[in-house]
Amino acid sequence: MHLIVTRPQAQAAGWVRELQALGLAASALPLIEITALDDPAPLRQAWRDLSQRTLVMFVSANAVVHFFAAAPPGRGWPAGVLAGSTGPGTSAALRSAGVPVPLLVEPAADAPKFDSEALWERLASRQWAGLSVLVVRGEDGRDWLAETLRERGAAVDFLAAYRRRPPALTIAEQALLQQSLADPAGHLWLFSSSEAVGHLRVLAPAADWTRSAALASHPRIAQAAGAAGFGRVDLVAPRPAAVAAAAAAWPGRVAPIESRPQ
User: Fold this and answer.
1) 154 and 218 both lie in a single domain
2) Is the pLDDT of residue 141 over 80?
């Protein structure tokens, strides 16, 4: 069985390398394209105002990358400003960008899922009345955490740092998609976004996914894959080691890398 990683290209490439290092046959088929915004001025202004914030919450590693790409030369993360993350990938990106670990707020390592609700568990004990929060995301997204913070009296602003688009598949990616449709039992999909599932449905509108299987990193994503028709969807933590363990235990198993089809 061959594992298909559907994260955006920048993250998918790293995931494939890590999964292959763990002995799995894995390939990237990015189902979301991430692009920079046409106008970086709002990002630059956000950096100028950054020290006035109590919390800057990043929804994804892509939000981190595009936000820090707009940082003024030599500008570091301001003292006392918290950086919020919803999961391991975003946390790793924040650390790599230079956010001091004491200022990083993230879900507990043993949280049953990684999302805004899990992050709120680490923020709920604080007093938020009158404080300023910035949510850095794509051009749209979930508003649950923002609404919760506003209910606690915080002033919350949103900042779009990048644009998400349906992918334009390469010839090799189109071939991988067709291989997965022709041999559903030989492929296992890995979804980290409900939007990716939606894009897959557009790319293959007539596909019958009832004999296909997937791993999903969140219940909402699993629900989307089930609604798309996938015959089996299991939850998995969004970490390469957890995915490798789940894949190794899968019926029929994922092929070891030396058996990877050419």
Assistant:
1) no
2) no
